[in-house]
Amino acid sequence: MGAKIQFDRKNIPVTHGRLIEIYQICGGFLHAKNPFSQDYRSQVDKERKKYEGAKKEILKCLAFFRKLMWYHAAVGLSWTVGDDPMTAADPKAAWVVDFGSDNDQLINIVVAEAQ
């Protein structure tokens, strides 16, 4: 038998909609408005005000992702189109990801594959 890995479960509520919302928030800081529009000056002023809070907003989103993803596990399932998605599938692979501590840049990934 191989090594045993145990990690604490986190109770972090997240939905697909929340992940899209975070993408839109952070992605919104990457796009400049049309520089050829009639109200260019007012758009520039509006964008500058938005960017004043960008760092705080992005760090808030990053903190959420770090908490969500720091230790996580996933299982790859074999699924065929037409199968009932509510029934258990045939697990083919699993992996556990550990991003380590804030002080180092080590990432450990343990992978298991079905025989």
Number of strands: 3
Average residue-wise pLDDT: 76
In helices, the fraction of residues equals: 25-40%
- H/E series: HHHEEE
Q: Which residue ranges are poorly predicted, with pLDDT under 50 across at least 5 consecutive positions?
A: none
* Overall SS class: alpha+beta
Shape descriptor reads elongated
**Oligomeric state:** single chain
How much is the radius of gyration in Å?
21 Å
How much strand? 15-25%
- State the strand order across the main sheet: 1-2-3
Query: In this structure, how is the largest beta sheet organized?
Result: 3 strands, antiparallel
Contiguous helical run count: 3
Written description of the protein model:
The chain is of the alpha+beta class and 115 residues long. It has helices at 16-27, 40-52, 54-69, and strands spanning 71-78, 90-98, 108-113. It has a three-stranded antiparallel β-sheet with strand order 1-2-3. The longest helix is centred in the middle third of the chain and has 16 residues, at 54-69. It is elongated, with a radius of gyration of 21 Å. The relative contact order is 0.13. The model has no long low-confidence stretch (mean pLDDT 76).
